[in-house]
């Protein structure tokens, strides 16, 4: 055996108990004591190691999206989009790429019920030949805020009250009463879609706009959409209480059991494509993440399919240690100037260096499956085997060269240094269109959730009036219905 090649794995398990260092353990039942009833000896190394390991089993949970479930499978290109992007994994129909997907809830802790009203995360890690590509999305196509600087406050408002440790609706209604940009997202969260039946029956969205670049360097703004082949299904609030009461991991179980039974979940990937020269042609800013792009103008174009056909081997290694990051892209895919995406580019890797340590990308689930090389090395828990003598660049002894240049957006960016808002706020039009697209019974269900949120006794009259004014600007009859159910006479 080459000791340098040996990596810890249950495949190398001994047939008898050992310490972590491999020494035989002859008794895993009784501690080493002085006599049969005396105190335990500190020299019981195995006992101390066992308890010390146990004491450290938990790592910090994700600051958001702590609760989740993962599964593995593949992505297959079904339609030729090589004219839009030079991404190798999208090069031609039939090309398959291994993936791992993590679904999640957002607000509550690692062990919280999966039946709560909350957006769901939908993250896909593509292990491509040109490195990993992480598509870190949600099950709703828009977001609450359009500038990442508001994200920590937004999360604080949704998370439990720091005093009572209970999520309280008055805090949510108070915070967002300052932010009418959130209305569109609330027409998703407070709608039926706010409680998906499970992870298989929901859509996914890249949410932020990204850029595709083709071989010639031509740019396209794009949005990603995942559509489940088994359709979208949701739970009513009453069903959610029942389902969550019976099993707080119902969605994890559903995913695991259906893959185990050979009923493989599948999604089709579509993109919307915008010519960057057309960005100013709309009454909204296409880089504003609170907006959807009209599908009649930018229709969904099919790209491929995602099939989840393998359960994970280990929850800790493939769910807790997995690290997704919207900054992890491949040649042919680039960010856009969407302000919210720009903050996300920084935030995830920063969180993961804290949560998992500086070498988190060496963890098997995160490491690229393609060859990779650089001189970022050492640090806490580095376990990469290296035997080269040159760890600097450039060097006449090291043949490693720069990669071929690939296209990145080359448009000129200029302007005065400033803290700006997006000009075309247009906060009310799209939520109004969405509300009016609901069937009457869906509108009623939506209104009852809106009213439930505003009925929290700590929501003040002032906050209720503001919300009624917002909902009235979304749709007059919606505002009137909310006002009448809350017994409030708005002066609008
Ligand atoms: C500026 C706004 C945002 C910031 C600063 C932010 C930050 C974060 C952070 C720090 C994490 C935890 C990462 C970890 O510890 O591994 C996270 C997770 C996540 N975020 Fe965001 N986020 C933002 C907006 C969004 C948006 C718009 C989406 C949807 C497109 C989204 C989807 C997700 C998902 C799906 C995860 C969980 C990834 C996983 O499964 O591990 N986030 N976010």
Textual characterization of the structure:
- InterPro entries: Catalase (IPR018028), Catalase_AS (IPR024708), Catalase_clade1/3 (IPR024711), Catalase_core (IPR011614), Catalase_haem_BS (IPR002226), Catalase_immune_responsive (IPR010582), Catalase_sf (IPR020835).
- Its cofactor is heme.
- This is Catalase.
- The active site is at 65, 138.
- With 492 residues, this protein is an alpha+beta fold.
- The protein folds into three domains: 1-57, Cytochrome C Oxidase, Chain J (Irregular); 68-362, Catalase core domain (Catalase HpII,  Chain A, domain 1, Beta Barrel), CATH 2.40.180.10; 438-486.
- 26% of the residues lie in helices and 15% in strands.
- It has twelve helices and ten strands.
- The model has no long low-confidence stretch (mean pLDDT 96).
- The chain binds protoporphyrin IX containing FE.
- Residues 62-65, 68, 102, 104, 121, 123, 136-138, 143, 148, 151, 207, 322-324, 340, 343-344, 347-348, 351-352, 355 line the site of protoporphyrin IX containing FE (HEM).
């Amino acid at each position: 055996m080459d000791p340098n090649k040996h990596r810890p794995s249950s495949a190398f398990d001994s047939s008898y108990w050992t310490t972590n260092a491999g020494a035989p353990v002859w008794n895993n039942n009784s501690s080493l004591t002085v006599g049969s009833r005396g105190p335990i000896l500190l020299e019981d190394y195995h006992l101390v190691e066992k308890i010390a390991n146990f004491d450290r089993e938990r790592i910090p949970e994700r600051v958001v999206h702590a609760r989740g479930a993962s599964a593995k499978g593949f992505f297959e290109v079904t339609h030729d989009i090589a004219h839009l992007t030079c991404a190798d994994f999208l090069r031609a129909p039939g090309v398959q790429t291994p993936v791992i997907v993590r679904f999640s809830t957002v607000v509550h802790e690692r062990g919280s019920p999966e039946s709560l009203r909350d957006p769901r995360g939908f993250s896909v890690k593509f292990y491509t030949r040109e490195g990993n590509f992480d598509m870190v999305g949600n099950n709703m196509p828009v977001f609450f805020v359009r500038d990442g600087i508001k994200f920590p406050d937004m999360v604080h408002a949704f998370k439990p009250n720091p005093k009572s440790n209970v999520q309280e609706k008055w805090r949510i209604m108070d915070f967002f009463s300052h932010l009418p940009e959130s209305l569109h997202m609330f027409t998703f969260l407070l709608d039926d879609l706010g409680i998906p039946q499970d992870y298989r029956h929901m859509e996914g969205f890249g949410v932020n706009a990204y850029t595709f670049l083709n071989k010639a360097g031509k740019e396209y703004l794009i949005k990603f959409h995942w559509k489940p082949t088994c359709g979208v299904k949701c739970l009513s609030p009453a069903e959610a209480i029942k389902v969550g009461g019976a099993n707080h991991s119902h969605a994890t179980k559903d995913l695991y059991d259906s893959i185990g039974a050979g009923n493989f979940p599948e999604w089709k990937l579509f993109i919307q494509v915008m010519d960057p020269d057309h960005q100013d042609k709309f009454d909204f800013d296409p880089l504003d993440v609170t907006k959807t792009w009209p599908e009649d103008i930018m229709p969904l174009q099919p790209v491929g399919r995602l099939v989840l056909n393998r359960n994970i081997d280990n929850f800790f290694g493939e769910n807790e240690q997995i690290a997704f990051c919207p900054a992890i892209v491949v040649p042919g895919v680039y960010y856009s100037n969407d302000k919210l995406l720009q903050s996300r580019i920084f935030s995830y890797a920063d969180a993961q260096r804290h949560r998992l340590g500086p070498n988190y990308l060496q963890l098997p689930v995160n490491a690229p499956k393609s060859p990779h090389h650089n001189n970022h090395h050492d640090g806490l828990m580095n376990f990469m085997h290296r035997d080269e003598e040159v760890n600097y660049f450039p060097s006449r002894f090291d043949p490693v060269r720069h990669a071929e240049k690939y296209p990145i957006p080359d448009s000129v960016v200029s302007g005065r240094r400033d803290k700006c808002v997006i000009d075309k706020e247009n906060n009310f039009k799209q939520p109004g269109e969405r509300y009016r697209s609901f069937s009457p019974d869906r509108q009623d269900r939506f209104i009852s959730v809106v009213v439930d949120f505003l009925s929290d006794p700590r929501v003040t009259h002032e906050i209720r009036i503001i919300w009624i004014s917002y909902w009235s600007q979304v749709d007059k009859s919606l505002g009137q219905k909310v006002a009448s159910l809350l017994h409030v006479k708005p002066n609008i």
